[in-house]
């Protein structure tokens, strides 16, 4: 596992270094160290600063350590008029963890981000209720964007980055055995670590 972690960290640094300095200041790489391997996500603080900085607060405080990917939703078996393909994760306190308090919903209408395959986004009930639970999109799912029908309010969910390494792990979790969308064996998140500098938007 140590070799995998080193490789993931090196990949995160390489991808970020390839961009211009301004891009580096507005993006961050986080490594989710799961029991199936490392997943690297690139967060977009330029277009979704509230959501990105909120997620990074949980990362920096170690609140995802011991948490898990606990849910998988498969469109083909999803009993919803707007089926989706996602996996969801939470802290040790679960998906209803009040955590650090709710944040303002950054709608895809405003951010320009989309729930395409690999997107990371925040779980929520009503608008402005997201706290710590997040999900990763397995297949393009426009129903999760603003105006989409997955949530009856039509406001969509707050995408704030995308997976740059580890989609095979995401797919493995998505296809793992589950009952009523709950994974039979949740996939542990041993730790979530910031592999780059904190974005400028999150430093105040």
Describe the protein in words:
The chain has 204 residues and is an alpha+beta fold. Helix content is 23%, strand content 28%. It has five helices and nine strands, in the order ααββαββαβββαββ. An eight-stranded antiparallel barrel has the order 1-2-7-5-6-4-3-9. The longest helix has 17 residues. The N terminus is likely disordered.
Summarize the structure.
By secondary structure, the chain is of the alpha+beta class. It is built from 5 helices and 9 strands; from the N terminus they run H-H-E-E-H-E-E-H-E-E-E-H-E-E. The longest helix is centred in the N-terminal third of the chain and has 17 residues, at 2-18.
In percent terms, what proportion of residues is strand?
A: 25-35%
N-end to C-end Cα span: 35 Å
Mean pLDDT, to the nearest integer, reads: 91
Lateral strand order in the biggest sheet: 1-2-7-5-6-4-3-9
Which residues sit in consecutive blocks of at least 5 with pLDDT less than 50?
1-6
Main β-sheet description: 8 strands, antiparallel, barrel
List the topology elements.
Blueprint: H1 2-18, H2 21-26, E1 27-34, E2 37-44, H3 49-60, E3 67-73, E4 86-90, H4 108-111, E5 119-122, E6 134-137, E7 159-165, H5 167-174, E8 178-179, E9 182-194
Antiparallel strand pairs: 1-2, 1-9, 2-7, 3-4, 3-9, 4-6, 5-6, 5-7, 8-9
Name the descriptors.
9 strands; globular; 8-stranded antiparallel barrel; 204 residues; alpha+beta
């Amino acid at each position: 596992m140590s070799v995998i972690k080193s490789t993931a960290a090196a990949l995160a640094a390489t991808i970020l270094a390839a961009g211009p300095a301004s891009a580096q200041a507005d993006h961050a790489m986080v490594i989710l160290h799961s029991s199936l391997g490392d997943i690297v996500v690139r967060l977009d603080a330029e277009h979704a600063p509230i959501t990105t900085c909120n997620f990074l607060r949980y990362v920096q405080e170690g609140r995802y350590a011991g948490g898990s990917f606990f849910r998988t939703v498969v469109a083909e078996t999803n009993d919803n008029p707007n089926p989706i393909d996602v996996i969801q994760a939470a802290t040790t306190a679960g998906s209803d963890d009040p955590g650090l308090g709710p944040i303002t919903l950054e709608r895809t209408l405003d951010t320009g981000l989309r729930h395409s395959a690999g997107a990371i986004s925040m779980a929520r009930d009503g608008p402005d209720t997201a706290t710590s639970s997040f999900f990763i999109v397995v297949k393009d799912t426009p129903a999760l964007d603003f105006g989409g029908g997955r949530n009856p309010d039509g406001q969509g969910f707050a995408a704030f980055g995308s997976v740059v390494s580890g989609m095979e792990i995401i797919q493995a979790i998505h296809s793992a055995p589950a009952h009523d969308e709950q994974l039979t064996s949740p996939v542990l998140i041993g730790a979530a670590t910031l592999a780059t500098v904190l974005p400028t938007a999150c430093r105040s």
